[in-house]
Write a structure and sequence with these properties.
By secondary structure, the protein is mainly α. It is built from 9 helices and no strands.
Length: about 210
C-alpha cells in the first residue's frame, strides 16, 4: 500500500529551513563561511592605503629632484650605511652649521675630502630612511588606517617645509672661497636632494611596495 504523502504547510517549510540554517551555521563549514564573509565586509570598509585627500599634492620640481640614484657602490657609502663610521656630526644633520661644530678635530678631518664626506653622509641618510620606513610599517600594524594616514600626512607637510627651507638656503648660496663654505654648499645640495626624496617616498607610500 503506497505511503500517504504528507502535505507541508508554509510554516512547516519555514521551520525546516530555519532548523537547517542553524545546523549549518553551527557546523565547521558554516563557521568558516561566516568568517570569510566578515573578512570581506571588513576589507570593504577599510580605507585604501593612499594619501590622496590627506596630504598635499607635489609638483614636478620636487619629483625631479628626488629622482636620483644613491651612490650605493661607493665603499664610504656602504660603511656609513652599516654604521661603521660613527655619527658623522655635524654633517649628517642638515645645514647651516655652527662655526664651533666645524672646528672640532673630527669635523676638520672629514672636510679634507668633501666628495668622500658626501658619500658617507648619504650612506647614513639611507640608513635613517630604512629605519624610519620600518617604524612606519610597525605603526600601521598597531593603528587604524585612518590614524596612520593622518600621521603620515602630517609628516609629509613637515618634510615638505624642511625641503623648502633647504631649497632657499641652497639658492642663497655660500662663500665657497673657504673650505667651510665649499663643504657647506655641497652638503646643502645633498641634504636638499634627500629631503625631496623622503617627501616623495612618503607621499607615494613607497614603504608599502614590498609589503
Amino acid at each position: 500500500m503506497p505511503r500517504k504523502r504528507t502535505r507541508l504547510t508554509e510554516e512547516d517549510v519555514k521551520a525546516s529551513n530555519l532548523a537547517y540554517s542553524r545546523r549549518y551555521e553551527a557546523s565547521e563549514r558554516g563557521k568558516k563561511k561566516r568568517a570569510q564573509r566578515a573578512a570581506r565586509k571588513h576589507r570593504r570598509k577599510q580605507l585604501p592605503l593612499c594619501l590622496d585627500g590627506f596630504a598635499r599634492n607635489l609638483d614636478e620640481e620636487i619629483y625631479a629632484e628626488a629622482d636620483f640614484t644613491p651612490p650605493r657602490h661607493k665603499t664610504a657609502f656602504q660603511q656609513s650605511f652599516k654604521g661603521e663610521l660613527g655619527f658623522l656630526f655635524p654633517f649628517v644633520m642638515a645645514p647651516p652649521y655652527t662655526e664651533e661644530s666645524l672646528h672640532e678635530d673630527q669635523a676638520r678631518t672629514e672636510m679634507r675630502n668633501p666628495q668622500i664626506l658626501g658619500f658617507k653622509v648619504q650612506g647614513r641618510l639611507m640608513n635613517w630612511e630604512d629605519d624610519q620606513e620600518s617604524m612606519w610599517l610597525e605603526e600601521l600594524r598597531l593603528n587604524t588606517r585612518l590614524v596612520w594616514l593622518e600621521k603620515r600626512a602630517a609628516e609629509v607637510e613637515r618634510m615638505y617645509e624642511h625641503w623648502l627651507r633647504l631649497s632657499k638656503l641652497d639658492e642663497e648660496g655660500f662663500d665657497e672661497s673657504t673650505t667651510v663654505g665649499k663643504v657647506t654648499a655641497a652638503l646643502t645640495k645633498i641634504h636638499r636632494a634627500w629631503a625631496a626624496r623622503r617627501v616623495v617616498r612618503l607621499r607615494e607610500l613607497s614603504c608599502l611596495e614590498d609589503v
